[in-house]
Design goal:
Helix content: 25-40%
Bound molecules: 3-amino-D-alanine
Number of strands: 14
Mean pLDDT: 97
Low-confidence stretches: none
CATH architecture of the largest domain: 2-Layer Sandwich
Largest sheet: 6 strands, parallel
CATH class of the largest domain: Alpha Beta
Protein name: Aspartate-semialdehyde dehydrogenase
Radius of gyration: 21 Å
GO molecular function, one term: NAD binding
GO biological process, one term: lysine biosynthetic process via diaminopimelate
Distance between the termini: 14 Å
Subunit structure: Homodimer.
Order of helices and strands: EHEEEEEHEHEHEHHHEEHEHEEH
Family: Belongs to the aspartate-semialdehyde dehydrogenase family.
Strand order of the largest sheet: 5-2-1-6-7-8
Length: 351
């Protein structure tokens, strides 16, 4: 019998992207798609591949007969409900942070470590954070070829990583500064935003995001690191299977709506060249190489948003560091960074 796929969090922002991805898939192996959301959204009608479906309320019974349940919900909801789905016989593929670092839960990027989907003692598979995911197709491919030793990255993260409220805030701040000659005196952007009735204390960001960059994403952890920076370090180690990988990350929010970018400085065990790296990227179907600086061709988030692949460019051999590459990647944080990777894990499970 064709497998049954459930989408928990169907009415949320990532759930919507997931439905777009399902609509666009050429092969669709599922006998039934079940949309699940909070009781508040139950009864809503949504269309998947031309078929109108009624959203069911989250309950243990909603998982009966489900083979794979994809979770796009907050950590605390996943923490409670993914084990319930697994106990009812489904494999839970979870896009929250609840299980990522649990040693009994594989953290999977299909093009890097797909074999790990079989090693799931709790019946749960985790999907990485979008910042890690933005660069993982590239890092996995390079690691296989050259042996990764050290990773130093700076992220340029889009507002949508913070959810719909963060997107709304960015647009509101852009409206507030529109047509004003600000950005010429310390504090004038902040004043313009606050004068428009948008106090920074109400913002998901700790500083104005319009016409600015904010070197803080996530929450503050020990020794000045942010949760986002620690995720990049810990998740990269787990996905690549290098427990002692040296990683240093600085995560920065930029006034982009969707698509995270990462500047990568990667040190390898073996000699690397730009040509060899280009070959590795070109051989990886989920990577698009856009690297012709003489023609001013390189990836930018504005050109990548809505796309499935990871875009890579500005590949350079580091001048002062042996066996080291510097490059720039862009990945849509709602697609490969969230919904697409989760769906690809579900596909890998049925294949
Ligand atoms: C962010 N990576 O961009 C987070 C979302 N999971 O805020």
């Amino acid at each position: 019998m064709a497998p049954v796929l459930a989408l928990v969090g169907a009415t949320g922002a990532v759930g919507g992207v997931m439905i777009d991805i399902m609509d666009a898939r050429r092969q669709f192996p599922w006998g039934e798609v079940r949309l699940i959301a909070s009781a508040r959204s139950a009864g809503r009608k949504m269309t998947v591949r031309g078929q109108e479906l009624t959203v069911q309320a989250l309950s243990p019974e909603a998982f009966d007969g489900v083979d794979i349940a994809m979770f796009d919900v907050p950590d605390e909801v996943s923490k409670e409900w993914a084990p319930i789905a697994a106990a009812r016989g489904a494999v839970a593929v979870d896009n929250s942070g609840a299980f990522r670092m649990n040693p009994d839960v594989p953290l999977v990027v299909p093009e890097v470590n797909v074999a790990k989907i079989h090693d799931r003692p709790l019946g749960i598979i985790a999907n990485p954070n979008c910042t890690t995911l933005s660069m993982m197709a590239a890092m996995g491919a390079l690691h296989r070829e050259f042996g990764l030793l050290e990773l130093v990255v700076a992220s340029y993260q889009a507002a949508s990583g913070g959810g719909q409220a963060a997107i709304d805030r960015l647009y509101a701040e852009l409206d507030a500064v529109h047509g004003k000659q600000v950005g010429v005196r310390a504090g004038d952007v902040r004043e313009a935003v606050e004068a428009a009735g948008l106090p920074i204390s109400d913002s998901p960001f700790p500083a104005p995001l319009a016409m600015n960059v904010v070197p803080f994403a996530g929450s503050l952890k020990d020794d000045g690191w942010t949760s986002e920076e620690l995720k990049v370090r810990n998740e990269s180690r787990k996905i690549l299977g290098i427990p002692d990988l040296k990683v240093s990350a600085t995560c920065v929010r930029v006034p982009v709506v969707t698509t995270h970018s990462v500047a990568v400085h990667a040190v390898f065990e073996h000699a690397v060249t730009v040509e060899a790296a280009h070959k590795v990227f070109a051989a990886q179907p989920s990577i698009v190489l856009v690297d012709d600086p003489a023609a001013m061709r390189f990836p930018t988030p504005a050109d990548v948003v809505g796309e499935d692949p990871t875009y890579v460019g500005r590949v350079r051999q580091a001048l002062d560091f042996p066996n080291t590459l510097d490059f720039f990647v862009c990945g849509d944080n709602l697609r490969k960074g969230a919904a697409l990777n989760t769906y690809e894990i579900a596909e890998a499970l049925v294949n």
